[in-house]
Amino acid sequence: MAGLINVDLGSVISAGGNILDDMFTSKEEEMTINLQEKKVDAGLQTGQMAINQVEAAHRSVFVAGWRPFMGWTCGFALGYKFIFYEFCLWIWCLCQAKGWIPKDFEPPPAINAAELYPIITGLLGLGGLRTYEAIKNVKSNAISMPKAKEKFKWPWSKQ
Length: 159
What we know:
Elements (H helix, E strand, L loop, with lengths): L8 H15 L3 H31 L3 H4 L1 H33 L17 H20 L24
Helix pairs in contact: 4-5
């Protein structure tokens, strides 16, 4: 019976300590993990910025022209929905009342612009930011990142 109870108390305590250590992380470990995550995020952002610069400088419309294309597409869709479609619907009803268009013909389809609003909002937000920079004479390609020990100062701030 005594052989069954013979357990190494040190290994039991060590195993319990390892389990507790795995369950709880110290502030230093959390800070190290957060720093590593921020370094990865910064690397991804730097890579995306380099890709954006190459795309914007490209001569091909299919590479550099996607932003204007999105603006023109959204503008056309909103123009159709709020100007052309309403005018067309009014003419359609008038022509049906005169008997020029049969009553069973349906009018042209309307565009559901709900999907466009987030895109337009983003484009207008970027355009507004660029306009603000232009008013303040800030060259967006000349902004450099601050050194580690300097406090960051926005180029347009008066401090």
